[in-house]
Amino acid sequence: MMAGWGWGMGLGGWLWMIIGVIALVAIVWAIASAGSSRDRSAVNDAAEALRLRFARGEITEAEYQQARRLLGV
Fold this sequence. Notes:
Mean pLDDT: 80
Number of helices: 2
Number of strands: 0
Low-confidence stretches: none
Radius of gyration: 26 Å
Strand content: under 5%
Number of domains: 1
Helix content: over 70%
Largest sheet: none
């Protein structure tokens, strides 16, 4: 004999499975977005350090422009 309306797991089982999938997607999205913001802040920190080195005269304009291209700024 089948349980519920013949769906096998019943309505409660399907509901918990959908909630679990939504929670998993939310966790993966949160981890992915946290990683990308760290990458952007690292590039911003590097660009700021580069700008300061150029302002202090530690590197030439050519070195500054090349480093900016490498950083993608």
